[in-house]
Write a structure and sequence with these properties.
It is a single chain. The protein is mainly beta. The protein has one domain (7-413): Beta Barrel (Porin). 11% of the residues lie in helices and 51% in strands. The strands form 3 sheets. The chain has a 24-stranded antiparallel barrel. The chain has a two-stranded parallel ribbon with strand order 1-2. The two termini are 36 Å apart.
């Protein structure tokens, strides 16, 4: 059966999010950059494969070994047969990798220079980005908005890498170091475990670390170290094979010193993973996943973060808090288009001090079937979320529930697309609220056409009692931009997004426009909010 995934669906599957509202700007920017300059898996070094953030350490090693033994991977279908990958993952990865093959097996050089630049204007503020890549040997990111980002990465023919300037550090399960995107909660089974990528360059408008980092890897060993300008140092060493991975991680800094041990043990169907750390106080996370059949997975996760644990820089799985003062249990399963997760978190220190929201329970059910008939695609979806929070009250405790039900229907035919969304919420003691939207548009079906067009128009209406009943709704924006506003009160809005992309010789130009207006109810006393964005991109 053909696997149906658009670009946003591919990002959600690879990141572990169940909806666009659970992503953040940094993660969306990272995948957007990869879609513009895909990783050529046949020409990239093992260090480049491991640092791009698309593959686990085992998957990068598996790709490297497969290509050396069997030659280049020529399609997403073949990628799905490589050990460590599924056909569903391969369908998602095809947006961010390329299958260029211009060499005989064993030769690994690509000397093509690729460049892209973006200028964006929004209201009275502007921003810009520049990205250059020299084959699979070096890449440079420069970004400017409120602050500047400069990141240079060098990849050796042997498995080594060096990053200077701004970089991301993502180690083990995130107890010591995890910069960039770190999702709160476990909306899907994929989100139960982290995919560590070590030290990698970044083009984010808001980078987390600045300094120098280096990594080296052999067939079984990998190690890396980094130093930041604010006085932090961190490093790791990992021993890995097809069915296991054992690692040690450490960090020092002005706050305190930390150390952790992480592990992954499995046989292809059962995987045990986790990390135990000390950073001023202990913390640990341990998970178990079981994959009995294709597109079927069940998982269990336990976590404990003591109140004194130094969570600065951490990004492990957690509920509404940072990585401290939390004991949690998560369980979930996924079978084809049906997924369910449940998470219980208790905050012992808040409970002892009788502070608010000392316990939380959240469950998420996703139903996402997809149907296709010739060129017609139909994608209905249903997402039901239940959240319960407990807080102290005189003589006992208060329990606050939030019920959230969202239904969507997307239809596409030869580039024409329509989408309907209905979202209802109700908090304890408040009247229900709702959001409804309708979007229609067109995109040139072929990605190789000399001239490509897209345009979308969307209308949204919202009626909720207050801020506590707000509804987050993903809004289509300019390419590479991420927009998830919070809708509340009585509001009506419409937006229009359009762009044209054309090639002239070896240069690709793209001009994009977004305009939107939001009206509020008269009793709110708010004036209409208007938005105008212009963006120009060039790639060569």
């Amino acid at each position: 059966m053909k696997i149906l995934l658009d670009l946003l669906g591919a990002i959600l599957l690879l990141s572990g999010a169940s909806s666009a509202e659970e992503l953040d700007e940094n993660e969306f920017e990272r995948y957007s950059a990869l879609s513009v300059h895909p990783v050529c898996i046949n020409l990239a070094s093992r260090a480049r494969l491991a640092s791009c953030g698309l593959f686990s350490a085992y998957q990068a090693a598996s790709l490297h070994d497969y290509i050396l033994r069997s030659g280049d991977i020529l399609s997403a279908s073949e990628l799905g047969t490589v050990p460590g990958f599924t056909q569903e993952q391969a369908a998602a990865l095809q947006y961010f990798v390329s299958f260029e093959s211009r060499r005989s097996p064993g030769r690994r050089r690509n000397r093509r220079l690729q460049q892209s630049a973006m200028l964006r204007y929004s209201g009275d503020a502007g921003s810009g980005k520049y990205h250059a890549r020299y084959g699979e040997s070096a890449e440079l990111f420069v970004s400017q908005r409120d602050a500047s980002t400069v990141s240079l990465a060098l990849y050796g023919r042997r498995p080594w890498k060096m990053v200077a300037g701004d970089f991301n550090a993502r180690l083990a399960q995130g107890l010591l170091a995890w910069s960039g995107f770190s999702m709160s909660g476990v909306p899907t089974v994929t989100a139960f475990r982290r995919n560590a990528t070590g030290f990698s360059p970044t083009g984010s408008f808001s980078p987390a670390m600045r300094g120098l980092a280096a990594e080296w890897a052999s067939q079984s060993w990998s190690t890396g170290a980094a130093a930041t300008l604010d006085g932090r140092m961190m490093g790791y060493i990992t021993l890995g094979g097809r069915w296991f991975s054992l690692g040690a991680n450490g960090c020092t800094g002005p706050e305190s010193n930390g150390i952790s041990l992480d592990w992954k043990l499995g046989n292809g169907h059962v995987l045990c993973f986790g990390e135990a750390a000390w950073h001023s106080a202990p913390a640990a996370i341990c998970g178990l996943s079981w994959t009995p059949a294709y597109k079927t997975e069940a998982a269990l996760l336990l976590r404990w973060y003591s109140p004194g644990f130094n969570s600065i820089g951490a990004g492990a799985v957690r509920s509404s808090t940072k990585v401290h003062d939390e004991a949690g249990l998560s369980a979930g399963f996924n079978h084809r288009w049906l997924g369910f997760t449940a998470d219980l978190a208790v905050h012992p220190e808040k409970l002892r001090q009788r502070k608010k929201e000392y316990q939380q329970f959240k469950s998420v059910m996703n139903v996402t079937p997809a149907f296709t008939f010739k060129r017609v695609e139909l994608r209905p979806s249903l997402r039901w979320t239940e959240r319960m929070r407990m807080s102290p009250a005189p003589g006992g405790y208060n329990t606050e529930w939030r019920h959230d039900l969202r239904a969507c229907l997307d239809f596409s035919l030869a580039g024409w697309k329509t989408g309907i969304k209905l979202n209802g919420v109700q908090n304890s003691g408040r009247r229900p609220g709702y959001l409804a939207s309708f979007e229609a548009g067109y995109r040139t079906p072929s990605d190789t056409a000399k001239i490509q067009l897209f345009c979308y128009m969307k209308g949204t209406t919202c009626e909720t009692p207050d801020w506590a009943s707000r509804i987050y709704s993903y809004e289509r924006d300019l390419p590479g931009a991420f927009n998830v506003p919070a809708w509340y009160g009585s509001m009506h809005g419409c937006s229009f997004v359009a762009g044209i992309k054309y090639r002239h010789r070896k240069i690709r130009h793209q001009l994009n426009l977004r305009c939107a207006i939001t009206h509020y109810a008269k009793q709110s006393g708010k004036a209409p909010r208007r938005e105008l964005k212009l963006q120009y991109q060039i790639s060569l």
